[in-house]
Amino acid sequence: MTKRDYYEVLEVSRDVSDKEIKGAFRTLARKNHPDKNPDDPDSESRFKEIQEAYAVLSNADQRRRYDMFGHEQPGGNPFGSGGFQGVNISMEDLFNGGFESFFSNFFSGATQRGARMSRGHDVLAHHRIPFEMLQNGGEREVELELLEACEDCGGNGAASPAAISSCAPCGGEGRITQTRKVGPFLQQMVSDCPHCMGDGRIIDKPCSACRGDGRQTRSRKLRFSVPPGVRDGTRLRMSGKGEPAHGGRGRAGDLYIQLAVDDHEWFERDGADLLMALPLGYPELLLGTTVELPHTDDEPLRIVVPAGSRPGDTLLIGGRGLPHRRMRGRGDITVLLKMHVPQKPSKETKKQVEALREKLSILEDDVEDEVRREARERRRNR
Ligand SMILES: [Zn+2]
Ligand SMILES: [Zn+2]
Fold first, then answer.
1. Which one of 43, 85, 152, 374 has the lowest number of neighbouring Cβ atoms within 10 Å?
2. Of 91, 119, 88, residue with least CA distance to 102
3. How many Å apart are CA 209 and CA 148, to the nearest integer?
């Protein structure tokens, strides 16, 4: 299959600005995200193609190289011998712009001298935590299928250290430089050594456990602590716990655990502060009441509603919200009072309320005054 032009993939012109490239990527990646197209088996390869184009064009160095050489770059595929592998970007990343960090490390190995050194890929795992966990934080354990250095060969891919030798034609550099005469010019071409495929080493007998890759997928248990009051979407970084580098040479990537906080049954959250709505019947608003609800700190939440409360009034309960992240203490809880109106009152109820109508209603002559008073009050509170 011939590779499509990266600019064509992102549907942009060749003189596009960096900002426009980002915008184009976001739009296309959202449209083609596999999660959004579960019935379209091609969306995954389209998504990957868009990612690859973005990875190259969003990197100033790589974009310049691509503009000069196209897909046939000297020094081989910029993503290493395996080509572009795609990254695990969620729809949420695309909306929040958190996808940039995925692309920033792709080419870090490209500038290193000598035989190909690479950095293992970063890995992103998603993890859900219950809302209640925000109160005190806590320990979590996940089991992930991750690439690790092969146990048998220690990551170098050879059956024994004696089975590795330096590649003679390239002197272990992994690259060869050819000088060609093009018209009046001497042109230097750097390319992957065909003898060792750019590796710089010759392995006479590959490790049988990993078939020479130096890496194995293994299920690994990881423990991490969730800080109290953590934000939804926070990424915990575990340095060097991502994929090991190819051939055991180079740094392992990082592992990120992105936390998604489950919704609470009734609280909305604004940082450390919590907001909830409390529906009350007319008698409770009129006469006052006390309501008790279970709370995230395991102490019942006591809400004292004073007599004469009105729907739309708010009550502030100080210091019972979530812990602040960077300072001591906790946020507050705001309780918004609502009025519960039965939707299907019985005949009997209607009759009884009807009997109270005269006592509880605003008299016709007073309506205008009440409207005026309400407006005044509303403006004063604004
Ligand atoms: Zn070689
Ligand atoms: Zn091995």
1. 374
2. 88
3. 12
Same fold, 1-111 and 264-341: no
The one-letter code for the residue type at 347 is: K
CA of residue 108 to ligand 1 center, whole Å: 22
Closest of 140, 134, 139, 136 to residue 269, by C-alpha: 134
Residue extents of the structural domains in the chain: 1-111, 264-341, 350-382
Task: Identify which of 231, 232, 224, 219 has the alpha carbon closest to the alpha carbon of residue 256.
Answer: 224
CATH class belonging to 1-111: mainly alpha
Most confident of 186-195, 288-297, 325-334: 288-297
Predicted confidence at residue 352, as pLDDT, reads 94
CA of 21 to the centre of ligand 2 (A): 40
Task: Determine the 3-state secondary structure of 102 from DSSP.
Answer: helix
Q: Please tell me the pTM assigned to this model.
A: 0.58
- Tokens representing 349 are 């109820």
> Which CATH code for domain 264-341?
2.60.260.20
What rounded mean pLDDT belongs to the chain?
86
Q: How confident is the model at residue 113 (pLDDT cuts 50, 70, 90)?
A: very low
Residues near ion ligand 2 (CB < 5 Å) are 150, 152-153, 207, 209-210
